[in-house]
Specification:
The N and C termini lie far apart (42 Å). It is built from 8 helices and 10 strands. By secondary structure, the protein is α/β, with parallel strands linked by helices. The longest helix has 19 residues, at 153-171. Strands 1, 4, 5, 6, 7 and 10 form a 6-stranded parallel sheet that branches.
Length: 265
């Protein structure tokens, strides 16, 4: 538990929703599960990296680290993070990076398939600013959560540039350094566009390729209920969990198809 997985870069965990209404999808993690995982990791000596520290590890990999470390991230930026997640992290001395869908800050998640009975609210700029002042980082999850690999160069660049410009204007230049590609979907073309848009780092799905614009992240889904998330385990269970998460992440293409059919893409 106290050993970090062997990798070129520190591991990156990706949560989406913590607590709140039940859903038909797989991204919701129970509040009790999340709190237990964070407390166990903190007691075991793990530390969370800021986005700036993670960037340093990418550009200058450390040969030895005194404590196991990881980047903790959240996609979509749901309002429940400010209520149920950030306070838990602050209590155990952890920080996190949240990737925001900038067109939907302060709005409901009408960009998504309706997996819950009622639409879910996103963080607003005031709440984001308060937690940024407390050391939490925010970055881009594109402007509208469109699957970038399915867009033309012009539309994909608009998603990337518009989101980055909004973040830099609202939160400062540090918020414009990283993007998490919606659905983890990226290819060489999208990586080039992200670089041209001004991003230093790009996060995809479970598999990376070693490039700073194709970094791997390990999703935490509803079945990841152990004391230590699969993405931080080195044993056979961790390997199996990462494989299942990779399969689930690839199945997200179905969400994009449904959005296209419904006319929201």
């Amino acid at each position: 538990m106290g050993q970090a997985p062997a990798a070129r870069f520190p591991p990156v965990l990706c949560y989406h929703r913590v607590g709140g209404p039940l859903e038909l999808g797989v991204t919701r993690v129970a509040r009790s599960t999340f709190a237990r995982q964070m407390n166990v990791l903190a007691r075991a000596g793990w530390r969370t990296l800021t986005l700036a520290e993670f960037s340093q590890r990418v550009t200058h990999p450390a040969s030895r680290i005194p404590h196991p470390e990881f980047l903790l991230s959240f996609d979509d930026g749901y309002a429940s993070l400010g209520e149920h997640v950030y306070p838990v992290l602050a209590d155990v001395g952890f920080t996190a990076t949240t990737f925001l869908i900038t067109d939907y800050v302060g709005r409901l998640n009408t960009w998504d398939v309706r997996y819950t009975w009622h639409r879910l609210a996103h963080l607003d700029w005031d709440t984001i600013g308060r937690w940024q002042e407390r050391g939490f980082a925010f970055a881009s999850h594109s402007a509208s959560h469109a699957r970038l690999t399915w867009l033309s160069d012009a539309r994909a660049m608009d998603e990337l540039v518009r989101s980055r410009d909004t973040l830099v204007r609202r939160l400062g230049p540090g918020a414009g350094r990283a993007v998490a590609y919606p659905f983890g979907a990226r290819d060489e073309r999208v990586e080039r566009l992200a670089c041209a848009a001004g991003y230093d780092m790009g996060f995809g799905g479970v598999r990376g390729n070693g490039s700073p614009l194709a970094l791997a992240r390990l999703p935490v889904y509803l079945w990841d209920v152990g004391r230590v998330p699969f993405g931080l385990r080195q044993d056979a269970i961790g390997s199996l969990g990462r494989f299942v998460a990779d399969v689930a992440n690839r199945c997200a293409v179905g969400t994009t198809v449904m959005l296209n059919v419904s006319g929201r893409r």
